[in-house]
Design goal:
mainly alpha; 2 domains; 11 helices
Amino acid sequence: MRVRSEKKRNEIISIAGALFLREGYGSVSMATIASAVGGSKGTLYGYFSSKEEIFAAFVIAAGKQRREEFLLLPGTEAGLLATLTALGTNYLRLLLSPEIMAINRLVIAEAARFPELGRIFFENGPKSVIGVIAAILADAASRHELTLDDPVAGAWRFKALCEVQLFEQCLWAIRDGATEEEIARNVEPAISIFLNTYRAGDSKNT
């Protein structure tokens, strides 16, 4: 009976991830990965049942540290404005990071031929981010700070407002990342527009 190790699993994910990014998802097979890892396909299948499963593990591993940083948010005592500012800033740091940008480009390039890529990426990345944003917005609505019937729809709008211009420019390699100052300049108007739409009652003037 083969003994699985976390070290070997991580090695497979790392090597497969590099292959996906360099050669494209469609060009990489389980045999290709096994050869690059230096073992048999049998050993590889002992850790992962399919290429799709390896890709999902790669997406999770690539975003692990960035997600942890994204979740470093102030408590409700900091106030809505401070919370949304941290949320937007952390989100852009995550989105514009080299790791996540590379995966975005890979998925966009190959999703039409391999629809499972989009599903895997969404389930293990954007869906989780939207869940975090929606939970924060729902909590603010429960405290009557926001007038928001659908927190998930609000989360998508908040996300889109934060991304304006910077995301597309980085995605298309027009620019190489963004400075903290540039991120702040994106987040500030995004929050202003969002609050002008959703801030509850009398608090719109505060």
